Amino acid sequence: MVFLWAGLALIILVLAWLLRPLATCKLSILNPVPELSYEEAVARFQAGMAAKEGVEILAPCHSILLAHGHKTERSVLLLHGLTNCPRQFEKLGQTFFNMGYNVLVPRMPRHGMADRLNGDLKHIKAEDLKAFTEESLAIMQGLGEKVSVIGLSGGGVLAMWLAQFCSAIEAALVISPSLGLYRSNVPLNGLYTKLFLRLPNIYNLRTPENLLIAPPYVQIKNSSWAAAQFFRLGIAVFRAARKHAPACQNIAVVSNASDIIINNALIHHLEELWQTRATWPVVTYEFPAEAKLPHDLIDPNAKADHSAEVYPVLLDLIEKAWNKTR
Fold this sequence. Notes:
The protein has one domain (2-325): Alpha/Beta hydrolase fold, catalytic domain (Rossmann fold, 3-Layer(aba) Sandwich). It has 326 residues and is of the alpha/beta class. Strands 1-3-2-4-5-8-9 form a 7-stranded mixed sheet, sandwiched between helices. The protein is globular, with a radius of gyration of 20 Å. Helix 3 links the parallel strand 2 and strand 3 (102-105). It has 10 helices and 9 strands.
């Protein structure tokens, strides 16, 4: 009987440890961002992001700065997805550059490694992603009079974080943010995130079939811990959105009905929260299931290039947002 009670007590302690509240308070504060001149912003990029990219980083995955040599009317920040790298947004970035804007496509921490089988992704923390986003914002404000952000998947989570907490963002285009497990129940998302963070890390290896259609620079080993850190940052946004309107007043949220990687129910829940608190319309757009688009509908270097059908929609959404601020 003593062993039975001891066993029950141990189970209760383990469950209490696994299910303890998620700490997100520090993730809900935008740290002061320095005001930089154009020259200071470029120098900061070169001394920071660019200087950290040596031989251990794939050449196509280096951070991309497309600059006109002076501060432009607006700058556009493009944030790639989990396991991908800046090359994912290079073509779209060039489009914005050709429109006359300065563009930054920064490489997320621990992404773009030359050893695509490395396990570095498991070391990502939500705090690192937040700091990376704040650093990107500092550079962007030196590159343009106004700053817009576009992010997909993991980058979509960072874009929605900026939309919620940063009033300096002129427009935010949040595309299929990775907020939780596919088809997971919205109320249970916090539970799944806790378990992912506190149980041993699991690597999800891309299948040979997936590698055939994926670009040749994506990381092969995804990490349950890494995914959960993006979920955790998303939970910080959810908690803030239940109480406050987003700081950015020009937001478009894009979902993909045929996406089997992320959770569209959570995306629609975020849309509802934002629309409930905001006194301005939050624009939503969903690519229909009949389009049969993959989760990564941005990267033209995948086996199937969907940019011809996707980019015009995204450009229309962001340009309509810009027209509201003119």
